[in-house]
């Protein structure tokens, strides 16, 4: 199997709106190259976009374990946990992402989770 060609195909599937197809192509690549962060990140995004949240979480935690300063992995893990309704678990990852990199989408996700937690604490 030509891993680079498969990665390119997976990226095409992902960009074309087929995250499930991308994930199927990426899974064996991650298995063959477990330390390839670009492939693992794309697989995590494919899982997130296809609502396979526990699988996305597994990939994102592996990325963070490999590189704790990966702001994007923290952000997407926070979003994954938010999407799963696990707001308290999402909060530290979203805060870390914002602290590491000032980006509007990072800040918006953090505000959303903080607002939700503020409302739930008041109830």
Automatic annotation (TrEMBL):
SUPFAM superfamilies recorded: TPR-like
Species name: Actinoplanes regularis
Protein name: Tetratricopeptide repeat-containing protein
Organism taxonomic ancestry: Bacteria, Bacillati, Actinomycetota, Actinomycetes, Micromonosporales
InterPro entries from the UniProt entry: TPR-like_helical_dom_sf
